[in-house]
Amino acid sequence: MSAPSPTSEKAAQDQGGTTGAGTVARRTGRRRLSLPVVLLIVAGALVALSAVRAITGAQDITSAGQVAGALTMAVPIGLAGLGGLWAERAGVVNIGLEGMMILGTFFGAWAGWQTNPWVGVLAGVLGGALGGAIHAFVTITIGVDHIVSGVAINILALGATQYLAKLFFADKPAGSPKQSPPIGDISTVSIPGLSDWLDKLAAHHWFLVSDLAGILGGLTTDVSLLTLLAVVLVIGTFFVLWRTPFGLRLRSCGENPTAAESLGVNVYRYKYLAVIASGGLAGLGGVFITMVPSHIYNEGQTGGRGYIGLAAMIFGNWRPGGLAMGAGLFGYTDSLQLRNGGPSVHALLLLVAVLLVLMAAWRAYKRQTVAAVVSGVFAVALFVWYAMTDTVPIQFVTATPYVATLLVLSLASQRLRMPKADGMVYRKGQGK
């Protein structure tokens, strides 16, 4: 059978109700956020952060150092989430992102230490892609439950890298059974002359102006080339999956593989490509952790970021833009614990309390009494906590990324719409 034209595929899918923003909006009664609305939300968040900084005196919440740390922490989360997006848009749930990141950390460090960092980047991507290929074979060809396969990959990747680290690093200078020798640096870039000017603006602590200067300074000073590559991959993913015939066919495999097969799409091929790409992206996230913040491999250094990346993807409603916003949020909270962010987290309690008050008012307006009361109770509790303390315990700061993950997913759950055939076992020939 000859391959169908993109126009016929799109028309068939729209008739079947499996794709198209308009179809989804009519079916769910919700409209996707437009670019002006997103920009308005970002501006509102900036004003809120600036107001909290001015009221509490917690200058670090919008400082260049905090934002730079947030960007560094957001990139591996975003890459893992981007890997999950590729897999799940093709209909394969990839819980194994954490394991694929672990493979990326080890193989990237092993090759980067012996040769140069960019060879290590390639090796880490290939290591993650190997994990993706195994997951694809087990789930697509054999038909094993996707969750079971993903958990198994996480366990196997951890065990395999522990064994390989003892084998290759234990007797090397500056190495150990749990640590590699130092790896070379990945180059960074800055905009000449801009950093100093932004630092001067930020030092004045002016409302909004200094906050914007701190944020821009963190985003434009000593930015790793791998960070720029991650930005290109997010933008490229959007154009490939939503603006090309290839992307349309791949997404059709995650929405209705039977209909896609009936139109001549090789569903197995697209699923394999998507899951292998998913593993490669997760592996790149692991390489980033090894080479940018630490320049060394350490056992367990992924720290559950594969799971947080999956949460960022869900928060983003399986779209690159929302995923990037979720990764930024989780990266910001992750950065707080690296900067001894007790005072900053204490200041943010006030912001969260105000947001909960607004949510309670909105729920009350919608006559959702239980949700309004729950939001109000939590708001009062946070106000009391903020008023009675000057900082928060370091244990809570350490748990902030995971608390933020749970809160965001619980608040975003009502607007989520996953691919229809996500996680379902597909067998070739169903569309004939």
Provide structural commentary.
With 432 residues, the chain is mainly α. It contains 18 helices and 2 strands. The protein has helices at residues 6-16, 21-28, 35-56, 64-89, 97-114, 117-142, 146-169, 194-203, 209-220, 225-243, 245-255, 257-262, 267-294, 305-315, 320-338, 342-365, 369-388, 394-412; strands at 188-189, 223-224. A two-stranded antiparallel sheet has the order 1-2. Helix 4 runs parallel beside helix 10 (225-243) and helix 16 (342-365) runs antiparallel to helix 17 (369-388).
Question: In summary, what is this structure?
Answer:
The chain is an all-alpha fold. The chain has helices spanning 6-16, 21-28, 35-56, 64-89, 97-114, 117-142, 146-169, 194-203, 209-220, 225-243, 245-255, 257-262, 267-294, 305-315, 320-338, 342-365, 369-388, 394-412; strands at 188-189, 223-224.
- The share of residues in helices is over 70%
Query: Percent of residues in beta strands?
Result: under 5%
Give the class from helix and strand content and strand pairing.
Answer: mainly alpha
Number of strands: 2
- Tally the helices: what do you get? 18
Q: How many whole angstroms does the radius of gyration measure?
A: 23 Å
Average pLDDT figure: 86
How is the largest sheet built, in terms of strand order? Answer: 1-2
Largest sheet: 2 strands, antiparallel
The 3D shape can be described as globular
Distance between the termini: 11 Å
Tag the structure with descriptive keywords:
single chain; 432 residues; mainly alpha; two-stranded antiparallel sheet; 18 helices; 2 strands; 73% helix; 1% strand; globular; disordered N terminus
